[in-house]
What does this fold into?
Amino acid sequence: MAKWVKGQSGNPSGRTKADKTITQLARDASSEAIRTLRAIMRDPKAPPGARAVAADRILDRAWGKAPQLVGVVTDQRRAVELTDDELAAIAAGTASEEPETIEVEAEVIDPSTLN
It folds into this structure.
């Protein structure tokens, strides 16, 4: 078995040019994929669902996915700001006031774009 020398690469010549990653293969086919999606989107004989999915995929690639709103339920007041009655209701487990709902804009990240 060969011994490794500290500080020296085990593969000094690197990956061969013939080895392409899956990502690179997909990128090489992306022009054809967009042409295919465009053809499906414009084909009046294609099922409406297929046309909608094709259009959606094209828009996602062109403009990115739309941000999604996430509802967060929280009571923004500190304990010192609550009345004695509110504190007693919380302690008794009978608090009836609905907490304030805050909408936060968040972006969903497509894991395939992290390469």
Q: What stands out?
A: The chain has two domains: 22-64, 66-110. The beta strands are 68-74, 100-106. Residues 22-64 form one domain.
